[in-house]
Amino acid sequence: MTGRARDDEGADAVDEAEQLIEVDGVEKVFTVRRRAGRLRRVREEVRAVDGISFRVARGEMVGYIGPNGAGKSTTIKMLTGILVPSGGRLRVAGIDPAQQRTRLARRIGVVFGQRTTLWWDLPLKDSYELVRRMYRIPDAAYRAHLERCVELLDLAPLLDVPVRQLSLGQRMRGDIAAALLPDPEVLYLDEPTIGLDVVSKAKVRGFLREVNAERGTTVLLTTHDLTDIEQLCRRVMVIDHGRLVYDGGLDGLRAAGGGERTLVVDLERELPPIEGVPGARTVRVDGPRQWLAFPASQSAAPLVAAVAAGYPLVDLSVREPDIESLIAELYAGGGMRADAAGAGGKDGRAL
Ligand SMILES: Nc1ncnc2c1ncn2[C@@H]1O[C@H](COP(=O)(O)OP(=O)(O)OP(=O)(O)O)[C@@H](O)[C@H]1O
Fold first, then answer.
1. pTM for this structure?
2. Fewest CB within 10 angstroms: 17, 89, 103, 227, which?
3. Phi, psi (degrees; rounded to nearest 5) at 14
4. Quick count: other Cβ atoms within 10 Å of Cβ 231?
5. Model confidence over 123-164: pLDDT tens digits?
6. How far is 60 from 171, CA to CA, in rounded Å?
7. Closest atom of ligand 1 to CA, residue 239
């Protein structure tokens, strides 16, 4: 489902087929009042977003990550028109979000993992009916989209259940379907898998992949879960203290951060620390379980083969460094190393 009908009246002339999101030197400064002493209050500026620039092409799925308070939600709120930028230029599908928020609303979908946009007391299907009316979705398109969402997200048994009775994972699937019913060109997802169990996470990720492939929906995804990024996004942007510090592939980010992954192995019995596995060092032993750290940029396959060849292996798993530690490591070495970013391949870019 590409080739959507679009109303471009009044939109800036941009090549939408190419760049759906354009962000140029965008800033957001909040003025806050802070207590200074018993009676005095002083005004302070918080630069939540501090001059960021990027482009997202139609059909891309991009991860937007960073530590708490980095400026992710503020960016997304500016991209939806909820917040007005303090400076810079912003366009989504050629539209200035803050100037034409209502017009943009038809072309974007937003899902916040922590909140629901569904009607709490209504059964799921009634919420969808309201979405249909609000967005004036033609009958045939509505039925087709709903059918596909119900099928891919396993919603059939939930349609008659009031939203308040849904579990977090069920509600999240319901929310994602609601955001996609109007067939938006851009989908902003803020922590879509937070708090979900493994099965629900897999369902949500699988669905997003399908939607991206079938409809060409552009996705900007905020998450603290690196697996979301790994399974969905070929490109990741990292924001920290309001500035973009990385834009490129996940491998490049790992290489630039110099992070380590951990191979966790369960042996048949308690043994001395594993030795002689090239590129890995044993960092912890607890009974038959051992932890081996190795460079995040390196494949785990040769390590697994080496351990399996020399030790009685029962089970294993690979643990990723979390986003916070990756970013912390990125800064520990005095910032991003451009060579490391390049070494990760996938055009990683220090910014
Ligand atoms: N309405 C506001 N008024 C004042 N300061 C704000 C406001 N909204 C956000 N901030 C500040 O701006 C900075 C960026 O916040 P933002 O919510 O964008 O971060 P975030 O990356 O989304 O964090 P998290 O991962 O915790 O959701 C923080 O210092 C935050 O306290």
1. 0.76
2. 17
3. -135, 155
4. 15
5. 999 999 999 998 889 999 999 989 988 988 889 999 999 999
6. 26
7. 21
Quick one: how far is CA 346 from the chain centroid?
18
Atom of ligand 1 nearest to the CA of 66: 21
Task: Locate the DSSP E strands across the chain.
Answer: 19-35, 41-57, 61-65, 87-92, 108-112, 186-190, 218-222, 235-240, 243-248, 260-267, 281-286, 289-295, 313-319, 349-350
Mean pLDDT of 234-245: 91
CA distance 260 to 293: 6
The encoded tokens of residue 279 equal: 């590129």
Q: Whose CA is nearest to atom 6 of ligand 1?
A: 30
Q: Give the residue-averaged pLDDT of 85-96.
A: 94
∠ CA 151-154-156, rounded to 5° = 85
DSSP track, 169-206: HHHHHHHHHHHHTT--SEEEEESTTTT--HHHHHHHHH
Q: Which of 30, 188, 194 to mutate to test the pocket of ligand 1 (most atoms within 8 A of CB)?
A: 30
CA of 142 to the centre of ligand 1 (A): 36
Binding pocket residue ranges, ligand 1, CB within 6 Å: 30, 32, 46, 48, 66, 68-74
